[in-house]
């Protein structure tokens, strides 16, 4: 994110983060995916003055064998 005043806090505002993954308050998508498929979620960022922006993100998980971490 650009502009605004820090700190910035990220969250999901709708949709589905791939199972096994986490979208952190710092905007990092991480974890062990457990299901292949196409997933969409709305990522929202808010700055120190409560200004917000939201964008739909798409993630395609292909062949998610156990043990492959995403970071």
Concise structural overview:
By secondary structure, this protein is mostly beta strands. It has strands at 9-15, 21-23, 29-31, 37-46, 52-61.
What characteristics describe this protein?
single chain; mainly beta; three-stranded antiparallel beta sheet; two-stranded antiparallel ribbon
Question: What features would you describe in this structure?
Answer:
By secondary structure, the chain is mainly β. The chain is 0% helix and 46% strand. It is built from no helices and 5 strands. It has strands spanning 9-15, 21-23, 29-31, 37-46, 52-61. The strands form 2 sheets. Strands 1-4-5 form a 3-stranded antiparallel sheet, with no helix packed on it. A hairpin with a 5-residue loop joins strand 2 and strand 3. The radius of gyration is 13 Å and the shape is elongated. The two termini are 19 Å apart. 6% of the residues are buried.
Could you outline the blueprint of secondary structure elements for this entry?
Elements: E1 9-15, E2 21-23, E3 29-31, E4 37-46, E5 52-61
Antiparallel strand pairs: 1-4, 2-3, 4-5
β-strand amount: over 45%
Q: Class by helix and strand content?
A: mainly beta
Main β-sheet, spatial strand arrangement? 1-4-5
Indicate the mean pLDDT: 88
Total number of helices: 0
The Cα radius of gyration reads 13 Å
**What's the main sheet like?**
3 strands, antiparallel
Quantity of strands, as a count: 5
Structural shape: elongated
Low-pLDDT runs of 5+ residues are none
């Amino acid at each position: 994110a650009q502009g605004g005043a820090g700190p910035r806090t990220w969250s999901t505002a709708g949709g589905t983060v791939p199972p096994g993954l986490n979208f952190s308050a710092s905007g990092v998508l991480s974890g062990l995916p457990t299901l292949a498929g196409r997933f969409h979620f709305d990522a929202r960022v808010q700055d120190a003055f409560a200004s917000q922006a939201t964008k739909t993100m798409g993630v395609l998980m292909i062949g998610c064998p156990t043990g492959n971490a995403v970071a």
